[in-house]
């Protein structure tokens, strides 16, 4: 019987999962997948590490109505593939640790209360993360549940990077810039430290460009600033989210067009960004194929804003030694990468067209002052590492 760690990332209508086998002191991925459409049109897909499909099932909506049932169905679906493996812990991606929670945390009853208290800071995400932990606690009674926070990597920011220009009691009440995608940035930082310690000790801007997009300024492995703020709405535009917007626009929409909080939530989270601007799709691949001028405009705006933020974060670091692209767009959208870097020559950035077209791990031109790298991110792998480290620490305690 071998030991395994299950990693869950529970969203509003989906649970993403990845199973790692514990080999010596590290975790190796064995399978991953997701249950989508919980409560609507549930669909489970799971693949092994070679991308062979292990499970592909659909159910009527009511048959997988909530996260608890979803997890039961996931475990049934992948059951034959995990025979002979004992789940020793479940790691959870939790979006918000608030001002105080940074280290991965064993979730007992008291910890669950602390997570619930943070729901108001991330009402659209945190409740689903908590539902995932509750589901896993029921499905795996007695097995340690470990929460890893997306905000944690940014907790060492200087006050200037995290505050808003509001009276100080707002900051004290938790109204501050937290930053997200921390597990991705932490993973990339660790990877660089292993591959290129000298570079990792320097000034690195990481562009996590996926459906959700943000960028992070990292010095010597520590986050100095990041484009996302109090919520995952701020910064660069995303698949369906607006990115930075003048707060006066929201006041205007409320005062003159009668929009309320629900209307604004729908607009800013679900009908803005690439999807809202193009009216076509949130997916860069669709927009690149489209001949509709709105698709081209949406991509141009995306490129413009990402380039601007790279400049801003380079300023926050006092210079830049490396730019790292990661996540779905960063790893794959070569045209956008080239366009973003075009115009950043003043930062020593120059992209080699052939390397970029090949999605090479290093796409900077030979001799360019600033290295430009492409690395796949692995947030689940980072969680699995945290889980093993925490188990190790509690064994040694
Ligand atoms: P999430 O934030 O949901 O984890 P991902 O990091 O997987 O998202 O990024 C998904 C996005 O990556 C897609 O919506 C699409 O815009 C983009 N993408 C993925 N593959 C490609 C590709 N080959 N070319 C261009 N864009 C791509």
TrEMBL record:
Residues noted as binding substrate in the record, renumbered to the chain: 93
Localization (cell): Cytoplasm
Keywords: ATP-binding, Cytoplasm, Kinase, Magnesium, Metal-binding, Nucleotide-binding, Transferase
Pathways involved: Metabolic intermediate biosynthesis; acetyl-CoA biosynthesis; acetyl-CoA from acetate: step 1/2
Swiss-Prot/TrEMBL site (Transition state stabilizer) positions: 181, 241
PROSITE patterns according to UniProt: ACETATE_KINASE_1, ACETATE_KINASE_2
Enzyme class of the recorded protein, top EC level: transferase
Catalytic activity: acetate + ATP = acetyl phosphate + ADP
EC number: 2.7.2.1
Annotated GO CC locations: cytosol
InterPro entries in the cross-refs: Ac/propionate_kinase, Aliphatic_acid_kin_short-chain, Aliphatic_acid_kinase_CS, ATPase_NBD
Binding residues annotated for ATP, in chain numbering: 16, 208-212, 283-285, 328-332
GO molecular function: acetate kinase activity; ATP binding; magnesium ion binding
GO biological process, one term: acetyl-CoA biosynthetic process
Free-text comment on the cofactor: Mg(2+). Can also accept Mn(2+).
Matches recorded under Gene3D superfamilies: 3.30.420.40
Swiss-Prot/TrEMBL cofactor(s): Mg(2+); Mn(2+)
Domain of life: Bacteria
Nucleotide-binding found in the keyword field: yes
Residues that hold Mg(2+) according to the record: 9, 379
Keyword Nucleotide-binding carried by entry: yes
PANTHER family found in the cross-reference section: ACETATE KINASE (PTHR21060:SF21)
UniProt family annotation: Belongs to the acetokinase family.
Subunit structure: Homodimer.
Role according to the record: Catalyzes the formation of acetyl phosphate from acetate and ATP. Can also catalyze the reverse reaction.
Name of the featured protein: Acetate kinase
Organism for this UniProt entry: Neoroseomonas eburnea
Annotated gene: ackA
């Amino acid at each position: 019987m071998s030991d395994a760690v299950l990693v869950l990332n529970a969203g509003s209508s989906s649970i993403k999962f990845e199973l790692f086998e514990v080999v010596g002191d590290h975790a190796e991925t064995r399978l991953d997948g997701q249950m989508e459409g919980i409560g609507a049109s549930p669909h489970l897909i799971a693949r092994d590490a070679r991308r062979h499909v292990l499970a592909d099932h659909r159910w009527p909506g009511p048959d997988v109505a909530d996260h608890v049932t979803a997890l039961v169905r996931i475990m049934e679906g992948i059951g034959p593939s995990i025979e002979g493996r004992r789940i020793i812990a479940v790691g959870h991606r939790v979006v918000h640790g608030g001002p105080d929670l940074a280290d991965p945390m064993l979730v007992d009853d008291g910890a669950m209360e602390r997570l619930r208290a943070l729901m108001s800071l991330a009402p659209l995400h945190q409740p689903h993360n908590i539902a995932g932990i509750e589901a896993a606690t029921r499905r795996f009674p007695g097995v340690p549940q470990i929460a890893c926070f997306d905000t944690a990597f940014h907790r060492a920011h200087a006050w200037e990077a995290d505050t808003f220009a509001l009276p100080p009691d707002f900051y004290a009440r938790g109204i501050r810039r937290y930053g997200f995608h921390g597990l991705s940035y932490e993973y990339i930082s660790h990877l660089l430290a292993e591959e290129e310690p000298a570079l990792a000790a320097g000034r690195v801007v990481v562009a996590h460009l996926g459906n959700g997009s943000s960028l992070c300024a990292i010095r010597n492995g520590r986050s100095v600033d990041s484009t996302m703020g109090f919520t995952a709405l701020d910064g660069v535009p995303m698949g369906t989210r607006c990115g930075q917007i003048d707060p006066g626009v929201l006041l205007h929409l409320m005062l003159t067009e009668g929009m309320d909080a629900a209307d604004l939530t729908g607009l800013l989270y679900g009908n803005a960004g690439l999807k809202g601007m193009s009216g076509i799709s949130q997916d860069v691949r669709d927009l690149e194929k489209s001949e509709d001028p709105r698709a081209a405009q949406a991509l141009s705006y995306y490129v413009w804003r990402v380039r601007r933020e790279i400049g801003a974060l380079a300023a926050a670091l006092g210079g830049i030694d490396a730019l790292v692209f990661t996540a779905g767009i960063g790893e794959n959208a070569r045209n956008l990468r080239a366009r973003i870097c075009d115009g950043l020559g003043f930062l020593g950035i120059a992209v080699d067209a052939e390397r970029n077209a090949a999605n090479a791990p290093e796409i900077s031109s030979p001799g360019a002052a600033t290295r430009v790298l492409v690395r796949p991110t692995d947030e689940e792998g980072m969680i699995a590492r945290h889980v093993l480290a925490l188990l190790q620490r509690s064994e040694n305690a």
